[in-house]
Amino acid sequence: MSEKPMNKTRRSSLKLMLGGLAAIPVVAQVRVAHADEPVSETDPMAVALKYVADATKADRADKAGVAGADQFCHNCMQVKADSGEWRGCNLFPGKLVNENGWCSAWVKKA
Ligand code: SF4
With contact defined as beta carbons under 8 Å apart, do 76 and 100 qualify? Predict the structure, then answer.
């Protein structure tokens, strides 16, 4: 390897490159935060499915032997995670639903 001292241009280029690498995690975090926003109840899909973040505000009819009052996102087949206040849902890609939410597509988790 060369023993020559780094010239000024090369040193500046290296600083720029390292600065750019340092910015990557920040950009990645911003993208993740944007992708994991809660579903808005005014989102057209949410309106169509009557999604609410608080299931007690929904008119939930009994389904497949499960009382309406016992239907929540946390016990729905479409919810992606087993824990957490906000979780992914197969019907709302890139968004989060409240564990105590509900929509008309609710199906009992196996
Ligand atoms: S499909 Fe299930 S988990 Fe998704 S919003 Fe509707 S009730 Fe909640």
Answer: no
pLDDT in tens, 66-83: 999 999 999 999 999 999
- CA 6 to centroid of ligand 1, rounded, Å: 59
Share of the chain above pLDDT 70, in %: 68
| Domains, the chain | 8-98 (4.10.490.10)
Closest-CA residue, ligand 1 atom 4, reads 89
- Is the Cβ–Cβ distance between 22 and 10 less than 8 Å? no
CA distance 35 to 27: 13
What phi and psi values does residue 64 have, to the nearest 5 degrees? 45, 45
Phi, psi of 87 (to 5 degrees): -135, 160
- Quick check: pTM over 0.90? no
37 Cα–ligand 1 center, Å: 15
| Beta bridge partner(s), residue 97 | 87
Looking at the DSSP assignment, which residues form a beta bridge with residue 108?
76
